[in-house]
Amino acid sequence: MSSQCVRVERDGDLALIIVHAPPVNTITAEVRAGLREALENVRSADGLRAVVLLCDGSTFFSGADIGEFAGPPREVEYRTLFNGFEALEVPLVAAMHGTVMGGGLEIALACHYRIAAPTTRFALPEVTLGIIPGAGGTQRLPRLIGAERTLDFILSAKPVSALQAMEMGFIDDVIEGDLRAGAIGYALSLLAAGKGPRRTGEMRVDPATATDDIFRRLTDQARKLYPNRNAGLVAVEAVRKASRSSFAEGLETETALVNECKKSDESRGAVHVFFAERDCRRVPGIGDEIRAAPVKSAGIIGAGTMGAGICVCFANAGIAVTLVDANDAALERGLTNIDRIYQSMVERGRITAEDKVQRVSLVRTTLDYGQLREADVIVEAVFENMELKREVFAKLDAVARRGTVLATNTSTLDIEAIAHATSRPEDVIGMHFFSPANVMPLLEVVRTTRTSPAVIKTVMELAKPLRKTPVLAKVCYGFIGNRMMEGYAREAERMVLEGATPRQVDGALEDWGMAMGILAVFDMAGIDVGVNVHKANVSQYPPDPAYYQADFALHDAGRLGQKNGRGYYRYEPGSRTRIDDPEAIEILRRRARELQIAPRVHSTAEIQERCLFPLMNEGFRVLGEGIVLRAADIDVVWTSGYGFPRYRGGPMFHAEVLGLETLLNGMRHYRDIFGPMHWEPAPLLVELVERKLSIAEWVREHRTTREQP
Ligand code: NAD
């Protein structure tokens, strides 16, 4: 028997159900149909004594089809299918490899025995998508390993290895060598030992693992790990149910709970970001006829903070890098930095010492631009200075071969002007990495009016081996992320001048879900860095005498942030712990008096609104001006580059959850208080509210004009 993606093979007394649904054996509707058919087949087979379930390709089932989340509930279908497997009258062995997640693990829990290749990893990451394991996971796993371990595993959402899984008690054996042969051997040994089916659903949860005290601890843990969210608490409720009622009743409850979760903003937001991160790689209008150029070697100009981090990204991808700087000392510093990054990866067990040697060997350094002749891509990361950058690009124009991608990592300079320092502006593009470049996943890819489709495609595809999430933008000051950050940070700074403490402002933002308050971010990045940007770009900002004056005041007092232990907060040497500092507060108060800024009492809600409203409002400008291809691209920028909470779906998604009219009214409310300079609603926001359109409806209207490459 064989369906498209599931086949049944006989091997003597055994049947093997083998799934082949590349790339990662997602449990799609088609796979489920194939599994149903396979189940029928083995049920009616003659002389069958055991069944093995396994998958072809890189992994056992990687999980459920997240694309189905928005559609009608599928839990009952999953449950019936998995129960059908569990009910088999002969032993059923799941033989696993690769990354077994969510629904993939849940189907294995419905099998009678579970074995895995040594490199297999297991995870139940559902709570990070705002849901709970909904295909029996919350009911079967506690029957195998107890309620406490189940919830620790579900709430951590992190993968465990095959050995850890065996210690935890949800797999029976680790199989070295060929998995299929090992699985057949394992099934035969079960038969030889007279073992029959061992149904998880017929077991009981060990009551010692499910006491009220344990659930209390886990409830606290869910609150702590997932503030502002509900799915962790729902998982506790579902597992508690498993320990207090029958299996059938528990499954019913689990289904009801997971379907409730799917409707939540938290789940819709996280799922939205999941798909947005996939879609942002696509560039409508650049079709298959345009080919990405292969990238085998790269050049990096500037061995500073960014250059070293970018170098590591390329070397991690196995791409040879030539690192160029203006003097030996800078190259030496760059190499030391690269070494340090790799050393810390070795120490944290991320790579082996041999990996480090191999990756470092891909980097060579030189002062000679002539060594860049063979590079397929060159990324410039010298000081942020237009004259210097134009000089560097003119040199690159002279040495690079035709067709080499010439990229700049500038944050604030006009890439059009940089491109015109060369005789080939069509090959010039922005590759805006974020600091630390080897860690942060976001890559803003900035095209000029002249960048060729082939260069855009090459860079968008290069993002994959570099392990970056690329978002395509057009040239404007600040591109997407930093442009939207201007208003967000401006208000945070303004509020500390009005008398709020840095901790109050950062605390309100962190309570809302931002990974780190913006003032603490400035301390980390260096107050001088922000001040230099603002000094160099005065013409880009509104004529507001208070603009970013909190940064200026601290800078004038020699407070540079973490690097000298004094910024918005104070830091003990070698520590990043923020300590409130009356001296900083006094400096801010003094500057406020000089600027005659009236003190104000700030509620948490006001702090959050005054930072987040301008951020979202600017997003509507970015979208309206066609700087981005899609609203969701903005959400990707903020969730992957600026610590915006994924469960809020990014600023554009959140604007709709909040209500566009609420946002518009909020902008108008603060405009009435603070004047129009910073609080004018974006024209697109006004249009959407007046025409009662959603962002998606508006985008649909404008699709034909926006999809130009
Ligand atoms: P940096 O000061 O740490 O490093 C700049 C390097 O460029 C130095 O090693 C310097 O010796 C070298 N350099 C100067 N002139 C050169 C020349 N003619 N040829 C070769 N090398 C030369 O700066 P950075 O923080 O790494 O920033 C580099 C670029 O990245 C800037 O354009 C900056 O705006 C951008 N950027 C920085 C960050 C950040 O957080 N630091 C984030 C995104 C983008």
Q: What keyword list fits this structure?
A:
709 residues, alpha/beta, 6-stranded mixed sheet, binds nicotinamide-adenine-dinucleotide
3D structure, described in words:
The protein is of the alpha/beta class. 49% of the residues lie in helices and 11% in strands. It is built from 30 helices and 19 strands. It has an eight-stranded mixed sheet with strand order 14-13-12-15-16-17-18-19, sandwiched between helices. The chain has a six-stranded mixed sheet with strand order 1-2-4-6-8-11, sandwiched between helices. Strand 16 (405-408), helix 16 (415-419) and strand 17 form a beta-alpha-beta unit. Helix 4 crosses helix 9. The two termini are 47 Å apart. It binds nicotinamide-adenine-dinucleotide.
